[in-house]
Backbone:
């Protein structure tokens, strides 16, 4: 069971349906955190953690908004217990941000020229054949 913080009441109905997947993603997260950093650039060490965080949040988002497979109560529980990132989900609901990889990619203060991350530039606007990789999370293009 994922680490449930501070909450003393039991999880709502439907938890047993999503628990195995969340356990698997938590196990992957632990492996990514304990993975060796030898031979990697400083920024590359956090990329697997960002990827797993995105997967977990997207899983909860898809279950609630796309497939309507979980209740509002269970969805709110996941947000309250920080199982899913509510700020990232809020961005996914806005037009143009449906595939956003992480919140750091849209923060202008984290870039050299005060703009969005390079992964937010549409691939059609980039040079042909050029591989673009986000410095923050390793994304190769989340704008489409």
Residues:
């Amino acid at each position: 069971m994922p680490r449930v913080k501070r909450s003393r009441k039991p999880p709502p109905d439907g938890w047993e349906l999503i628990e195995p997947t969340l356990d698997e993603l938590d196990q992957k997260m632990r492996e990514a955190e304990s993975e060796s950093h030898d031979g990697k650039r400083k920024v590359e060490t956090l990329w697997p953690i960002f990827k797993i965080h995105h997967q977990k949040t997207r899983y909860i988002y898809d279950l609630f908004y796309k497939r309507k497979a979980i209740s509002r109560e269970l969805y709110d529980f996941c947000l309250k217990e920080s199982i899913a990132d509510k700020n990232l989900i809020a961005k996914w609901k806005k037009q143009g941000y449906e595939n956003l990889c992480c919140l750091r990619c849209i923060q202008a203060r984290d870039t050299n020229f005060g703009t969005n991350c390079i992964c937010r530039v549409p691939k059609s606007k980039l040079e042909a054949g050029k591989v673009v990789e986000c410095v923050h999370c390793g994304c190769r293009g989340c704008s489409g």
